Amino acid sequence: MVTLVETGRPAAPLALVVESLAVAGRRLRRLRRAPGRLVGIIMNPLVSMIVLGYLFRGSLSVTGGGGYQEYIFAGVAAQAGLAGIGPTAVAVAEDLRGGLVARFRSLPISRPAVLIGHTLGDLAVGLIGLAVVTLLGVLFGWRPDNGLLPVLAGFALLALFMYAMLWVGVLLGLFSRNLETINVVAGLVTVLFSFLSNAFQSVDRLPSGLRALAEWNPVSAVVTRTRELWGNPTSTGGSFPSEHASLALAVSLGTVFVLTVVLSLRRYRTAAR
After folding, report:
1. CB neighbours of 157 closer than 8 A, spacing ≥ 6?
2. Residue 125 — left, alpha, or beta (φ > 0 → left; ψ -120 to 50 → alpha)?
3. In this structure, are residues 235 and 202 in contact, taking their beta carbons and an 8 Å threshold?
4. Which of 71, 205, 217, 248 could form a disulfide with 221 if both were Cys (CB 3.0 to 4.6 A apart)?
5. How many CA atoms lie within 13 A of 136 on its CB side?
6. Cα(137)–Cα(46) distance, rounded to whole angstroms?
7. Spatial distance between the Cα atoms of 50 and 52, rounded to a whole number of angstroms
8. Stated pTM of the model
9. What are the pLDDT tens digits along the chain (273 aa)?
10. Please, are residues 161 and 78 in contact by the beta-carbon 8 Å criterion?
11. Which residues contact 95 (CB under 8 A, 6 or more apart)?
12. How far apart are CA 189 and CA 123, in angstroms?
């Protein structure tokens, strides 16, 4: 039998895993009462596929050639990761406002397990949403042109991106407990990260003042590397980040992940008092 650590003390690795999975299970059970969370993750990518990939496909093209439906699917899939920011932020804020965190503090459970459990539960929901988006993408004409292993590697990369974005949601929920503010900020982050990138067009078509931001946007790095793995059309634009997508991905996404995790755990220590 696993002995849980006392509140506030460092957790043994096995205890931390057990506690995190318990919190994740609680988060998944709530999905049955609030299935709108899954619908929200699917709707943003679906709207992009319908509007950009179908209705406006005649007015949009890929720099260097290639089918636009195949070009945008990596960007659409990345939107599924961004769509998880808002629900995670709202859940964390509600737990703080509703006193659940205070009840957790009275239990012999390590503090990081609460936040890790939130992200693991929401990652499972996000992966379900990504699977649905992929099926819809196939219906809209997306096809990978490489073998099975590169295709799976592309989806694994998207899962890593999704998990990093969930920590952005955790940080947002810890710093702002106002649900209206969270929804507005999360919506802005989703839109800006999506369209200030190469998700739907090459960054060389953006104004010069925004091009550098778009090139170092973690979404651009994830989308470029995923397209390469899937064998889909890729427009690099000739910049260093686009020509070295793996390095840009490690720097940009790694920075976002480390900062959000460290700041979230630090903020949680004070918010849970």
Report:
1. 222, 225, 226, 229, 249
2. alpha
3. yes
4. 248
5. 23
6. 8
7. 6
8. 0.86
9. 334 344 444 457 777 888 888 888 887 887 777 777 778 788 888 888 888 766 666 656 666 666 778 888 999 999 999 999 998 998 888 888 766 666 666 666 777 888 898 899 999 999 999 999 999 999 888 889 888 999 999 999 999 999 999 999 999 999 887 888 898 999 899 888 988 888 888 888 888 778 888 888 999 999 999 999 999 988 766 677 778 888 988 999 999 999 999 999 998 887 655
10. yes
11. 101, 114
12. 18
Rounded Cα gap, residues 80 and 190, in angstroms:
10
For residue 23, give both structure tokens: 């919190």
CA of 92: how far to CAs of 29, 95, 179, in Å? 16, 5, 10
How many Å apart are CA 248 and CA 256, to the nearest integer? 12
DSSP notation for 56-124: STTT---TTS--HHHHHHHHHHHHHHHTTHHHHHHHHHHHHHTTHHHHHHTSS--HHHHHHHHHHHHHH
Please say whether the beta carbons of 210 and 189 come within 8 A: no
Exposure on the CB side of residue 6, measured as CA atoms within 13 A: 1
Contacts of 64 (CB under 8 A, 6+ apart): 233, 234, 235
What does DSSP assign to residue 30? G
Residue bearing tokens 């952005």: 168
